[in-house]
Amino acid sequence: MSPAIMCTFTSIVAISFLSHVYAQRAYYCTTPDFCDDGIQVDPRIETPTKPPASCPAGYLICLKPKCGVAAGNLQPDAKDGEATKGAFPWHAFLQNDAAKANTANGYAGGGVLVDQEFVLTAAHKITNITAVNVILGAHQTTKAELDKCQKFKVTSMYVHKNYNQSTLKDDIALLRLETNVNMGGNINLVCTPPADKDYQNTKTECLVTGYGQQEFTDYNAPTPFLKQVHLPIVDTKKDCEASYVKNLGPKASDLLDLKFELCAGGGDQLDACTQDGGSPLVCPDAATKTFSVVGLVLWGKKCGQPGYYGVYANVPAYVKWITCTKDCMLGKGDCSKCPAVQHPPK
């Protein structure tokens, strides 16, 4: 079978080998710096079969976009506070469509772009609302600035079938966007870590971003701009569970899921906060300088209290669930095997 045709702004040739006549290949619109260079051999089955007829001005048709990088390989500043503008192009502003005219511009929580048409978030951010929009590329959160960003209607939402609203166990959801995202400039995918990769006792220095409150009692979400905090991942049982049991009593051990949750922070003001739920905890790869989403903000005790760690969904433990749920939302698999259920139910 002849290789698919690819248009680029360079002399690079991309070759796509398909494993059989039913195989399908994915194509994306990206800016040149977000498209991998060199010859690409990738027989994985994906959609759509045909490349788009055209891309917006300044974009090219790409077989395999780079994940986990910002434009120009911009890296986050070492300081905490206002996020380095453009360094987190995967961060998503979730908007409650029914409340988009309010003073908070309908802010409902955070999420992360993991695919050209899928956003990952915490289930507790979307189970009480029925119509959600995703805004990408936002640094400031005024209506005027949000209106300049790419905005997508969410057409379907699936949550983990075992999600428990009382304990926040299996607190994860996948959102499908109405149209594919054009990646480039201030919008790009985050990398997804290998399934079951263990970050829990690595002391890896990571970053959490969000528009949530700056203090537990501020009630000022979304904040005027995206924020960033550098956090170390800690041992879930030895450090995190022990801390909560010490401060809250033995029943606190029931709150943590040692496989599907991880903890980070623990220092003064080193934390996510209220209304940061669903926002990504991303960790850099020392060799490639790319970022992978390792956690999603779930819960904690107040915000930035010394000795209390922030609790996150352990994304590597859910990679198989994410892949299965994505396939079922695309009509290529059985959602009950993931297990995942649609929200709102239909």
From TrEMBL:
Residues 1-23 form the signal peptide. GO terms for molecular function: serine-type endopeptidase activity. The keyword Cytoplasm does not apply. Pfam families: Trypsin. Belongs to the peptidase S1 family. CLIP subfamily. Residues 69-327 form the Peptidase S1 domain. GO terms for biological process: proteolysis. InterPro entries: Peptidase_S1_PA, Peptidase_S1_PA_chymotrypsin, Peptidase_S1A, Ser/Thr_Proteases_Immune/Dev, Trypsin_dom. This is Peptidase S1 domain-containing protein. It comes from Acanthoscelides obtectus. Keywords: Disulfide bond, Signal.
